[in-house]
Amino acid sequence: MESKPTLVFILVLTIIAVLLGFNYFKTPFVRQEQETEFKDLVMEATPAPTLSPDREIFEKLSDMERVAQLIAYPLVINETLIDELQSETACVSCGDVSKVDRVNQIKPGIIILFGSQISTESAQLVTSTISNNFASDLLKPLLAVDHEGGLVQRLAGEDFTKLPSMMSACQLDSIEQKELYEKSANELARLNIQIVFAPVVDVARSNSSLETRACLDEEEIKRTAQNYIESFGKYRIMSVIKHFPGIGQVEKNLHHFSETIALEPKDTQAFQSLLQQYPNIGVMSSHVRLEEALGGKPCSLSSVCLDRFSQVFPDATVFTDALNMESALEDGGERLSLSQAAEQALEAGNYVLVFDEEANSAQLGQVLKHLTDRYQTDESFKKLLDKKIMRILSLKLKTS
Question: Which residues of 148-162 are buried (b: 16+ CB within 10 A; e: fewer)?
Fold first, then answer.
């Protein structure tokens, strides 16, 4: 049975959808005027193609390459990786030697950069190598990074602007926020970063495990998030707001423990408001469990928690939080395999399967094989995934 807060959230989303009729013209990810001008030029120059560009790409991919578009592969930038890339043996044809070569074997739709205090020099070397190593533009991955500021900012080493934590940013005026965010967005755009996992829009409590990563005031959260989304959107970088449906009251670290909360209306308010304004941004689903709801499953693996996105905010791209977190793998006293969690996450309504730096290429290869096997034998599963794959290919075209 769904809890009252969940029912309230569903009702509010439905009312918003009806009243607003989905304002699709708010496009912080891809500026409307540029997209319109491009379409006009194409229409004047050539007749409409039989297939849309994303569909043309789709038709050229193998089954495994298609399914791989839904995987966000973690790549750790450290001294070992830099040494590999700087050596003469770091190349596509060198077999299973370079970490980038191993990524190339998976051919993921997205690569997430991990590491501590990464410098611009190191980041440039890695992103340029990734671009060069993917021989086909059809398979060139989108690049993503955690970029909240404060405790969670991977690209924060030499020559990068260090952003304040969300709690500190909420105390700045809008002019200061925009100056910082636009400067940072410009730095990331030069590295061809297209997705940032931020801002955090959870409403913190005094004992929240998020600590300085979240604000206490709902209005300040929305104002700060708006400035963040719009600033990065100017540079064609998509924000992924997190962690739906809200983990501001969670006291345990979900990387290591599961937790059940009584969801309050204010937990979902910022998600509703921001998706109303920016319906084509990303949303990260969390592994939190809700009292008297979802059958004990984490939100990230529950269609009851996520299915309404396809109905109310169909242009939002839903990403899981890291699926190899303990809170995602616990299931009624039993433990899910990574492949089982990935399968359930896609069925629940997620578009992209995210993994943190603890996941290795062998594990992700197993996940990809498991999903591909079902893709080839289950027609309903294939249709479900095809829609998600087309979304990722569309995002690639918009950022090219």
Answer: bbbebbbbbbeebbe
Is residue 287 within 8 Å of residue 321, measured between CB atoms? Answer: yes
pLDDT in tens, 19-66: 444 332 234 443 333 333 323 333 333 344 467 888 889 999 999 999
Residues 255 and 325 sit within 8 Å (Cβ to Cβ): yes
CA distance 229 to 275: 11
> In which element (H, E) is residue 32 found?
helix 32-45
Query: What is the 3-state secondary structure of 211-259?
Result: HHHCECCHHHHHHHHHHHHHHHHCCCCEEEEEEECCCCCCCCCCCCCCC
pLDDT above 60 (res 179): yes
- 14: how many CB neighbours lie within 10 A of its CB? 13
Reported in sequence order, the residue ranges of 136-190 that DSSP labels E, i.e. its strands, are 142-149, 152-153
| Dihedral pair phi/psi, residue 34, rounded to 5° | -70, -45
**Contacts of residue 216, Cβ cutoff 8 Å, sequence gap at least 6:** 167, 203, 204, 205, 206
Q: Would you say residue 82 has pLDDT above 70? A: yes
The residue type found at 88 is: E
Alpha-carbon distance values, 182 to 29, 228, 248, 259, 382 (Å): 14, 8, 27, 36, 40
Name the β-bridge partners of 330.
335
Nearest-angstrom CA–CA distance, 260 and 338: 21
Closest-CA residue to 75 (of 101, 113, 27): 113
CA distance 217 to 199: 15
**Whole-number Å distance between alpha carbons of 87 and 64:** 31
For 303, the 3-state DSSP assignment is helix
- DSSP line for 185-210: HHHHHHTT--EEE--B--B--TT-TT
